[in-house]
Amino acid sequence: MIGYVTLGTNDMARAGRFYDDLLTVVGAKRTMESEKFIAWGNNPKAPMLFVIKPADGNQATIGNGVMVALAAQSKAEVDALYNKAISLGSKCEGPAGPRGEGFYAGYFRDADGNKLCAFYMG
After folding, report:
1. Most buried of the four, 3, 11, 119, 121, by CB within 10 Å?
2. What total of structural domains would you count in the chain?
3. Domain with 114 in it: what CATH number?
């Protein structure tokens, strides 16, 4: 159902480095880029994550209540994503661990303040 998600950035180079490093954990790589955006994905027919400069030319800001969830293949992959994000300077929004029956997740923010979740269901 979801084709792609965009997250605003005010520093494309910094965001690019962060997501290049972070998304290697789930096997994603850059699929498209221009001076206004960078996109990562696992294949062209699967959902993608973009960082983008806002089209209106204003500064990117975080959305209150907005979060992007990155699907992991295992609890160990959640741990790896969360730990990688923290090692890259992310702010912890809830360490990786169980969050109820069959749901395992870790929460963090990127350098622009966008909230992300690494999760596994099972």
Report:
1. 119
2. 1
3. 3.10.180.10
- Select from 68, 64, 66 the least CA-distant residue to 117: 68
Burial state string for 89-100 with b = 16 or more CB within 10 A and e = fewer than 16: ebeeeeebeeee
Per-residue pLDDT of 63-100, as tens digits, reads 888 999 999 999 999 999 999 999 999 999 999 999 98
Name the residue range of residue 36's domain.
4-54+63-121
Tokens 């880029």, located at residue = 33
Predicted TM-score (pTM) above 0.70: yes
Q: Give the whole-angstrom CA distance, residue 55 versus residue 12.
A: 14
Residue 94, both tokens: 């809830």
